[in-house]
Amino acid sequence: MPEPQAIPEAVLEVIEPSGTRRAVPIAQSPFLIGRTAESGNHLSLADMRISRQCAAVVYAGGEFVLEDRGQRSGVFINGEKVEKKPLREGDAISFGVPDSFQLIFRPGPADKALPDLLARMEEVSNLEPGARELRHLSLLLEASNLLQSHLPLEVVLGTMTDRAIALTGADRGLLLEADAEGKLHPMLARQRGNRHLPVEGVEASQTAIAKAVEKRRSVMEEDVAKATADLRDAQSIVGQQLRSVMAIPLLSLGQLRSSDVTFSSSPAQVLGVLYLDSRKPAAFTRLERQILDTLAMEAASVLDNARLVKKERERMRMEQEINTARQIQQALLPSTFPKYPHFQVTGKNVSCLAVGGDYFDLLELSPERTAFVMADVCGKGLAAALVTAMLQGTFSAMSLGQEPVKVCAHLNRFICTHSEMQRYATLFFAMLDASGRLEFINAGHLPPLLVRDGRVEDAFPAQSMPVGLFDGTEFKSDAAQLQPGDTLVLFTDGVNEAVNPEDDRFDMERLHEVVGAHAKDSIEQIQAAIFAALERFGRGAPQADDITVMVLRYTGKPAG
Predict the structure, then answer these.
(1) What digits encode the pLDDT tens for the residues 62-98?
(2) Could you give the domains of the chain?
(3) Who contacts 259 (Cβ-Cβ below 8 Å, separation ≥6)?
(4) Dihedral Cα 323, 326, 328, 333, nearest 10 deg
(5) Which of 149, 207, 291, 492 has the most CB atoms less than 10 A away?
């Protein structure tokens, strides 16, 4: 029986959805990964979206290879979907589902790289000057690799601070991060020997930090006793008997300029400050100063990238929430209409953004009495969409027997009372019975088009102010008699105010022409003709407002 294949040491750094991390050694080949341990997996990931048999790490031909073993949404290395691919140091493995587990491949025993590097840095001070400089350069290269690794942000920046302390011989180091307003806040503190310090216990020289931020350059005082009076006499310097102080600004790479150029005073350009101090005077070579500045650039890059990743995640989350809002809003608007014995109806809404401020609906009050409404909330986007949802909820109360005038008065009072909403809405609300009697309220809305005997005219003009515009507005209802075959075309101002690339408006005259040309067609054909005319007129110009069209035709009271 052949002996098991010996494989070199390697680990998978497991990053859980909560952000916690753990290292799992790859102890055999194949190393199986999946949802449950019951399936024989060596690494189980508790996520129902991950397959029972998901992936495997196989050692073959002197290298570790990742294989897809049946993950439903695929296996990815650094965002690239793979079936089978060799693994390299720092490769990020994911499984095609958001907010799930991520694995980082690391050859060698767990947590070996950082302690080794820091231990070697402690040896630097014992080397001869020439060898010391070469050693500095070697460690700088390794430092850059670690700073660009997939380790947690706090570990990366803490390691960088430890490295700077070892390089300069400082007693302690403090890393400060700038918020959105440019104000600096302590992020982490370290002490010589790779030891943590509570950030509250480090009283940094605000004079040195302020100078570094103001000049956008490093402030390095090798002997404070020989420094300028403002720094030499600073309270933190005197009280702590400090002799050497360093403050290195961490600048956004996009903001960097030549060292001879004066930086803008905008605080947003400074991502943070690396602060170091000691009770002993120091003597920095030119190379050591350059290495410190380079370390600061690398740390700034890490902070910059972390901020970009955070913003991208926030953008994706917001986009997901907006898409959800769009789906909810579209679900609230009628997509199909039942057949009614005395009228036909169709409607369509196209928002210019993901969600919009137009609303239309049909409410069955009784077998022979139906209400319909069209509203246009001022503005667009989420704020307008929230008001349309409120309108729908209010008008649904009509089915409980509320009077239209009282409903409009209640809406107006509510919106005006909540002045922070800063929204008003035009609306056309009507009730049609089987005999053709139309009772309506037009609150500042565009008059519908009435098609009768092939002629098109504006009908039922506004006799009330929009809801939410003025407190105490009185609303008036009116009535009209429809004849069999009469067609009403209701629309929002996104139709007549649509523009083309030359910024010309579609206007009412064109709308009359389109509806008149299709007066004898079905209501579906009239609606389709309006949207087709708008598309031809716009010729690809961005939609400037929400567009809603509702077409209703009274067919007459059925016999019997």
Answers:
(1) 899 999 998 988 999 988 899 999 998 888 899 998 8
(2) 10-107 (2.60.200.20), 113-311 (3.30.450.40), 333-554 (3.60.40.10)
(3) 217
(4) -160
(5) 492
